[in-house]
Amino acid sequence: xxxxxxxxxGVSSLxxxxxxxxxxxxxxHYPLMGALRSSAQMVSYEIAMGLAVVSxxxxxxxxxxxxxxxxxxxxxxxxxAQQVWFAxxxxxxxxxxxxxxxxxxxxxxxxxxxxxxxxESELTAGFHTEYSGFRWSLFFLAEYSAMIAVSSIAxxxxxxxxxxxxxxxxxxxxWDLVFSLVPGLTFLFLAAMTFYNTARMPKHPYFKVQTIGLxxxxxxxxxxxxxxFLPAVRDRIQDIFWFSAKVALSxxxxxxxxxxxxxxxxxxxxxxxWKVLLPLGIGVLVLTAVxxxxx
Amino acid sequence: xxxxxxxxxxxxxxxxTVLSGVLVITRKNAVHSxxxxxxxxxxxxxxxxxxxxxxxxxVQIILYAGGIMVLFLFVIMLVNIEKSQKEDQxxxxxxxxxxxxxxxxxxxxxxxxxxxxxFPDRAIQMPETSNTQQVAVLLYxxxxxxxxxASLLLLVAIIGAVVMAKKRI
Lengths: 295, 169
Prior knowledge:
The complex is a heterodimer of chains A (295) and B (169). With 295 residues, chain A is mainly alpha-helical. Chain A has helices at residues 4-25, 29-59, 72-82, 93-108, 120-123, 133-158, 173-180, 182-199, 208-227, 231-260, 266-294. Classes of the chains: A mainly alpha (295), B mainly alpha (169). The interface between A and B is medium-sized, with 26 and 25 residues.
């Protein structure tokens, strides 16, 4: 089919319909306000997001045939062929495009500091004020799965997808071995942290079950770590581990933003979307095209 | 790629598109009409996929189902729905409408019967992998001038909207 990234953008642009319909169907004031805010926000940030994605797709066409690709696998293979993550291509153009996408993806998924649609101090809970129980949890499942999906797109387009760090600068048998040990070492480190805290648990009999449970959890983590050292498992787990690690880093950033930045005012939000990110996106797109022709 | 149950899917998607299109004009509530229109547009996107035009299908979903329909809903929420629900939905010109519809149907049938030579015997297998490139070659090569005129028209529309909406620029 070869429209992978286009399809992902299309599906993510459909998600705003769910929010708008939820807000309208509640037949109440706060949800309607939240839905209107959310539709305005998501439509305006989608444009900046699309421009950033186009500049990354443009970079895939810098091969001998001059033909790019929209396939997600093809984009990672292009980064492999050009021996650079697209975030560091044409420095700082790729980095700026990645930054635009990183801002727009937080706004697209309605997370802080762009959580205007559900600003609890103004709208109680925005579009899901009237929903509770399982329906409410469906909204949050959708929000968190959207976060993971958008992070995966960012990792695929700019951070080299499944490739390990420095596949070219640190190549060779030794470095391959060192990097293939990282998944097992990660799990062993987690297990060590768990054992350390097991030893620090209060010695009172009330905490006996918790202490045994934590120790058992640490043992399971250590077992997984040791299994990951087996050569057969080690080679197969590489791509999955590095991709998940990059996505996990992106999710960590999401939580970090939420704890760090105060919420925008709505006119500031629109100003950032239309007057900063959109011109920046167009500029990066034009400069990327020029750089692609020159170099 | 081998076609997947082409006949069944063609009739299924066509029925979905037409039925939801009928719902768009028969529903009293404007939001229900908009929802039916979304289903209709998605059905159209699937039909494009069956025609081996994945790029057009993707653009259809992004632009129509994702962008334009959100703006429609945005506008609908600003109008007074209770007042519009009491209004008469159809005017009294159904005879003219029926005649026009029958004339169009007869025209379609005539084109199909008389001009059978125009249609290819079987579906043309397009190279799917380069679909996007071919669209680009046509748009920016063969039909460059037309394409630029269309973009100029859109620019004029944008400027007109800004001029009408803002009292002082």
